[in-house]
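Morning. Coffee machine broken again, so started the prediction first thing and wrote up yesterday's gels while waiting. Chain of 344 residues, entered below exactly as on the submission form.
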Amino acid sequence: MRPTEAPRPYVVRSRFATTGLMCGPSVAGEIDRLARPYLTVEPGTAGPGDWRISEGVPPTPGAVPEPVTALGEPTVEYAVDHAERHVFHLAPEGPAWACQSLLRATRAVHRSAAARDGMLFLHAGLVELNGLGVALVGGSRAGKTSFVMAAVLSGQGVMVCNDDVSLSADDSGHGVLGVGWPRSVSVRLDTLDLLLGPERARAALDGLTHPANATLPSLRASGVERHGTALIYPWEYADLLETKLGHSARVDALVHLSLADAPEEAGLSAVDPRERRTLLDRHVLDTPNKHLNIFGHEPEPGTLRRTRGALTALPTFRFRYLFQDVRRAVDQLGAHLRAEVPAA
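Came back before lunch.
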């Protein structure tokens, strides 16, 4: 059992915010590993007005309960003192959940700050595919994770983010920058089998450290996630695929991705410019976080208009592929984009 560690102060930084972190050194070290390359953690004290996230510290009298329940996970209990700008992790106990809980709350503060700064959040993965920044747009089970993993394994891709990306137009108003976040990657078990082979996939699953992996099998048993799923932290993803992670990337093209049910449904086509805004808006996230949207995230009116305009001006495509043909799909899309999209 890990000896009890006295909480110490740390500072977490991103381009959008600075927050305080109060926890034991081993927990802080693990959060630093989980957060890279998106956030940095270092010893220090947060400034006046910065939010602080704490574990092992008694809640202040003004703190109120703020439970978070994610699908397939036990409820995480926080207490939040809005006046003092302080979030306290209460449960579940243990270092693994303390790390996950503190990172989730910290990430929520920074993403809310990014939203206030005018970043648009899109349900999309972002991968640098053969040097081009490609936003793979689509909802759950659209095939984003499988495609990005296959691209990385083939040596053609670098993952910036797997499932949601924050975007902003550059100073010219024409280019778009996409920024990733430290979120675990939810991977279908049959994706791991397909891309790694069953033996290597089993070994990978045995080594995963996200605490929710202990309860996620209930989703498969209940039929909610019939393929089964596992959560892979970013550093585990990088180690498993022998790759590096990208912090951010210029977006050169949008690809609306989906899985085909039959070979005749697979294929690629350009999206008419008149359709682009409608397709895009279907996948813009209303709030920056799945949980803990309690820090204020509304931007100034009109700040997202320029980013939407820049996104709809990008080359935009629809691409459907068969799950079992994902490796060939990476080659097909990569070749098409090299031919159709000008390099930056």
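The CA atoms of residues 1 and 267 lie 54 Å apart. Going to sketch it on the whiteboard this afternoon.
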